[in-house]
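Encode chain A's predicted structure.
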Amino acid sequence: MKQVSLHRTISLNSIIALAKDFGEAIAFHYPNSSRGASSLLEQENLSYQVWLDETRTLVDEGIASLERGEGIDGETFVNQLLISVSSNLYSA
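Encoded structure for chain A:
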């Protein structure tokens, strides 16, 4: 397998042309690609952790509300949810 080092942005058509010219598999090396992937993974993990913390807070608030007797029954909740969803669908 031949290695081709690309130091500029090229189009997919150029990549296909290179593959046809070589007539065999081509391995592309992108410098810093592993660092970029690692950074994206770290950002994803951070975003997930923020979402998880926010969700836990909301669940805790919901449980406290129920313990204070502020909850509504399931049928009322589902009916309100259906009304909300249907009004959002028709307003969009």
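Residues 34-91 form one domain.
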